[in-house]
Amino acid sequence: MKKNRDYEETFQRFFYSNSIPMALTDMETGVFEDVNPSFLEITGYTREEILGRTSLDLGIITPPERERMKARLEEKGALENIRVHLPVKSDERKYYICFGEAVRMPTGRKILCVARDIHLLLTARQLLADQENLLDTIFRNSPDFLVLKDRSSVYKKVTPAFFNYFKGINESGCVEGKTDFDFFSEDKAREHKMEDEEIVASGRTMILNKSYKSDIGRRWYHIVKAPIKDAVGEVSGILCTIRDVTTEKRMEMLLHARLCISECRASTNSYGLMKKIIETAGEITESGFSFFCSARKNGGHGVDLLIHGPEGFVHTGDAVFVAKLLVSSPFMMCRQRGEGVICNIPDGISAIAFPGVGSVRSMILLPVFEEKQLVGFFGAGNKDTEYDELDREMMKELCHMGCDILKLKRTEEKWTEVRRILKNIAEHFPGMIFRSGVSFPWPMEHISGTCEPLTGYGPEVFVQAPKLPFSSIIHPEDVKKLESTIDHSFLNQEPYEREYRIFHKKGTWRWVLERGVGVWGEDGSPVAIEGVITDIHLCGGPK
């Protein structure tokens, strides 16, 4: 008896002092016969509210669950890892893992239940599930490439955009467990592997800009490789964020091309500028050749067909060949539509053979207009991959830009020729061409022509900071007459002419004829006089 009492006292001390929630229930009825303080603490109930009630009364388990648990106890004598939610007075649901064991006591068979709080575990699991769901949502909807690798560079997860780049792989094809060596060339894969190893070793993010050539053509990417660290700060994986910046890069190339062509404008003629534009078209579209073909019968651009291909530039004025080219399928389609066309299928263009190029596999072609008149065709061909809308837009922008720059260059060339003609006229004109102020003493701003034969002085004597004002060599009797004539001219806004005498450097008076006109400013007031002074001394003076 004493031994049993000692045992009961030990059990009670263990039961009531344990920080783990414990309960003692009748095996047959399921009625709670005793609970420890820890059980009361987590439920918020009092002993009186718990004792005498069953797990069914408290909603801990359902009747079918109780029958299954009872059968298991009968069979094995114990329960393990049974997830239940204990009743909490605040109506909060708290989940626990229960362990139960059948024990024989003087009052009958009982079940000793021990509960372990799994609330934090379930919360952590839910948080993990939410994070995984968020990660999955990001991966499914991100327009960027997202590649998740472990620390050994083995693929764990990729976004759908990954399959747009590798057309030979569909989304049903599993990429988990693969490496860069399964998708890239050995050199590229080895390069990626070295980058990953550096990130794992350093724990630092790496930012890269790279270009790749794939089934869909050359693409440019902005790449951020970030290390994923575990709870202790060790790198456990790598997240690669890869953004396709091809559009921005090609627009940047187009802007760079514009700058290069604009700079080239100053150092070459129209023909050289056209060659630069044609060569640039091949570069920015990665084409095998590029060209301009004139649609004018007289070759209005000074060229019938100019091609840049593998052998450099080829220029042909073969009228028969150009005529056949202009009636070929893509050229006729481009003419009829009045817009750029893309031919990625050899049908209809395989018969075309450009000098220095050979057969044509693909082509992009744009019409060139000047004042709404078709003057030619601008195009490129034989790209390794298919031409797309971005190629067409870039060619279109380059074409417009090239036309504007060429037009400006031709205008500059015309004005250069005009200036050359005017300079020759001014240098050999039998008289003095001038620009002067509008008020007496009419200071000279510019003089050209035969100033020295007329006056005996060089132009530098009368202009800028004059050593001798031109009005000072005019005969005093003629100054007032000239001033009156100029005033009358300004008043009526008409040209004037006046004969007067000037004192030649050799000491003689000479008769001259001045013809001039006023130059008017934006506000309507005269700002200068421009005219010419000719020698009429040998003609016998004034008529």
List the quaternary state of the chains. single chain
Cα Rg: 48 Å
CATH superfamily of the largest domain: GAF domain
Helices, by number, come to 14
Strand order of the largest sheet: 13-12-11-18-17-14
Low-confidence stretches: none
Tell me the distance between the termini: 164 Å
Under CATH at level 1, the class of the largest domain stands as: Alpha Beta
Q: Give the beta-strand count.
A: 23
Largest sheet report = 6 strands, antiparallel
Q: Give the tally of structural domains.
A: 4
CATH topology of the largest domain: Beta-Lactamase
Share of β-strand residues: 25-35%
Q: What would the average pLDDT be, to the nearest integer? A: 83
Helix/sheet category? alpha+beta
* CATH architecture label of the largest domain: 2-Layer Sandwich
Estimate the helix proportion, in percent.
Answer: 25-40%
Shape: elongated
Could you describe the 3D structure shown?
There is one protein chain. With 543 residues, this protein is an alpha+beta fold. The protein has four domains: 2-117, 2-Layer Sandwich (Beta-Lactamase); 137-244, Beta-Lactamase (2-Layer Sandwich), CATH 3.30.450; 249-414, 2-Layer Sandwich (Beta-Lactamase), CATH 3.30.450.40; 429-539, Beta-Lactamase. It is 37% helix and 30% strand. It contains 14 helices and 23 strands. It has helices at residues 2-17, 37-43, 47-50, 63-76, 119-141, 161-165, 186-202, 246-265, 270-285, 319-326, 329-337, 389-428, 451-455, 476-492; strands spanning 22-26, 32-35, 78-86, 94-105, 108-117, 145-150, 155-158, 206-214, 217-229, 235-244, 289-294, 305-309, 312-316, 341-343, 353-354, 358-359, 363-370, 373-381, 432-436, 444-449, 496-503, 509-520, 526-535. It has a six-stranded antiparallel beta sheet with strand order 13-12-11-18-17-14, sandwiched between helices. A five-stranded antiparallel beta sheet has the order 2-1-5-4-3. A hairpin with a 2-residue loop joins β4 and β5 (108-117). α8 runs antiparallel to α9, α8 packs parallel to α12 (389-428) and α9 (270-285) runs antiparallel to α12. The mean pLDDT is 83.
